[in-house]
Amino acid sequence: MREPLFELEGLGHAYGSVVALHDVDLVVPRGRIGLVGANGAGKTTLIRILLGNLRPTRGRVRVLGFDVGTEALEVRARVGYMPEGDALPPDLTAADFLVYAARLGGLPARAARRRASDVLTLVGLDEERFRPMGGFSTGMKQRAKLAQAIVHDPDFVLLDEPTAGLDPTGRDELLDLIGRLQGFGIDVLVSSHVLGDIERTCDWVVVLEGGRVLRSGPIAGLVDAEVVVVEPLADHDRLVEALAGAGATATREGPLVVVEADDDPFDLVRDVLADTGIGIRSLGPRRTRLEDVFLAGGDR
Questions:
Q1: Which residue, 54, 71, 96, 241, could crosslink 48 as a Cys pair with Cβ 3.0–4.6 Å?
Q2: Which secondary-structure segment (H or E) carries 99?
Q3: Any idea which architecture 6-220 has in CATH?
């Protein structure tokens, strides 16, 4: 059995009197992980600790089975990082920069050039490889930062706000690239305030609030199979009345009808639809959005 992606035991960190993380205990499995939280939730602090760039005030951290405090070099050799800010040297070409990053990652010169070429092709910068990066668009810069994060073939890559500043097309293309990384054997942590990006890209989510873990679990766990959402073509009120007559709790929410029942709600809705002849546009379990998790946490 593989080691977890990372483990936190009693992890705490403070900047003077400001506490950024409060005694966090957490085990996160391999996969595509979303890290979400409002500004000041502790995301950046956690990333810096996972990278070994910040020594926590207290607690223990293991990444890929290695203790970050005592085996930092082992961690750094296996981890890549895509920063949020514009950290690219403007006078270097993408090719030179990727070769440099690959050499820093321990690759010999010839292997570094070959790997840089392959990764630039993967991220869609093969035709721009000999251009100075100072002239790159925002989307091209994001691709270049992703390329340097994976050029040394890490086991785990941390991406900080990878779609920041991108237009919808650029966002879709970069999210598709991120989704493909696991196919190359690279586990991913995506830190983002764009909840839709996390729901689209990740299979596990860690939600931070005020330096504490509000939620950690699979994205699939946001589905409530005991509650059904129906979108009828018409006759919303008649459907609500018929469902209530069949023993369900049915409420109208705009164009939708939300149904709860003691028995299988899908069977009950199916029978009522058959009896009433009401047509529907969609039927499925209620999915709790990450936005709803935030709102619920903020009301505590």
A1: 54
A2: helix 94-104
A3: 3-Layer(aba) Sandwich (3.40)
The structure tokens listed for 194 are 């764009």
Two tokens, residue 152: 């040394």
Residue 186 CB contacts under 8 Å (≥ 6 apart), including other chains: 80, 150, 153, 154, 155, 156, 157
Residue 141 dihedral angles phi and psi, to the nearest 5°: -65, -40
Alpha carbon distance 60, 214 (integer Å)? 20
Q: What is the spatial distance between Cα 274 and Cα 259, in angstroms, rounded to a whole number?
A: 16
**Buried-exposed string 118-152: b where 16+ CB fall within 10 A, e elsewhere:** ebbebbebeebbeebbeebeebbbbbbbbbbbbbb
Residues 6+ apart with CB under 8 A from 134: 88, 90, 91
Domain ranges across the chain: 6-220, 226-297
DSSP 208-267: EETTEEEEEEEGGGGEEEEEEEEEESS-HHHHHHHHHHTT-EEEEETTEEEEE-SS-HHH
Sheet holding 187-191, edge to edge: 79-82, 156-160, 187-191, 32-36, 204-209, 212-218
3-state SS, residue 112: helix
Q: What is the pLDDT of residue 243?
A: 93
Q: Distance between CA atoms of 192 and 206, rounded to whole angstroms?
A: 11
Distance CA 121, CA 205 (A): 30
Question: Six-digit token pair at 96?
Answer: 């030179």
What global pTM score does this model have? 0.77
Q: Out of 3.40.50.1370, 2.30.30.30, 3.30.70.100, 3.10.20.90, which CATH number does the structure's domain 226-297 have?
A: 3.30.70.100
Question: Positive or negative, the Cα torsion across 23, 209, 177, 90?
Answer: negative
Positions of the chain with pLDDT under 70: 1, 221-225, 287-300
What per-residue confidence (pLDDT) applies to 222? 61
**Computed from CA positions of residues 45, 46, 51, 52, in that sequence, does the dihedral angle turn out positive or negative?**
positive
